[in-house]
Structure of HMA domain-containing protein:
Amino acid sequence: MWYGNDEFWFYSSKLIKFIAMKKIKLKINNIKCDSCVLLIEDRLKDKEGIVKIKVSAESGNAIIFFDEEKINENEIIKDIESVNNFKAVVIEDNNTDEATEQILEKSDSQESIVVSENAPFIFSRPVIVIAVSFIIMLVFMFIQGNKFSLINSTSIENQQETQKQQPQALADNQQLPSAEIVKSDKPILEAYIVSNCPFGLQMQRVLADVIKNAPLARENIKVRYMGTVSNGKITSMHGDKEAQENLKQICIRDEQNNKYWDYVSCYMKKGDTQGCLDSTGINITKLDSCVSDSKKGLAYAEQDFVLNRKYSIKGSPTLIMGGAKVSEFNFGGRTSEALKTVICSGFNKEPGFCSTKLTTVSAKSSFSETY
């Protein structure tokens, strides 16, 4: 099929528009973990005009490609700052560090990029060079009175679909199909989280719902915590407030286990520590003793942290089943049915609760009154 003048200018203008796509580099303060990065990328990826997003948890830097006809820098910054009280400032190209530049270089890899569902095309640096050369060639041929055959619209649409990808949940989760989970008579699903992480709270919410609707599954679920003990003090990725909450939850888990799920089910609603301690009947004297006695609270926490290092756990949440990382996204995501299926995949002989159908709706992240 041969195209005339109108088609020539149509496709040329589209290529020029994509090449002229604007880039912004930001410094985002208070990013402490991969989960925070996912929260930001999730918020922006569906925004009209956002083409390409990459955020680095290590440096706190972000690179965003966008169509300024549909969204501007101030709107992007406002959206970022609406997530978990982050603060974003524009940085100049000559102020970016090597880590930021590596993000851009890696952005051509599908595994290192979040692509907006609204983005019709994604251009890497080499592709931009090729596109510019292509336009120059088209202009020359047009001046000479020639016509150039372009790819038909059907193949372009197919190419669009293949370039779309879903954001990855946690890159360090090894994804194992059900058949590869080590089976036993009493499998234990361990969920590694931190207490104020939006996705850690989401995982606790899912597991609490599993236990609510399939109570016998409680014996096959254990929540562990991420962090370190440094100079006799517990630390966590989101600061001391989270570290102290982690320690309280660890003490309740190990010394008042029958109250653990009641307490965390309350805490995940508003983060009201004192209100939840009171309403769930926690023995405060026993809890205070555990938290203040390094031979109790810190010793319990260190048992979790030793396993953190053993399994090289970096993201909240991370699931361990049968001594290996497993991804909930191989089973349907962060839903009660998916997590029940993960647990049941570890049994030599499935118990009765495995036949109970649970919700396939994804739980809410962060603090929430509802599932």
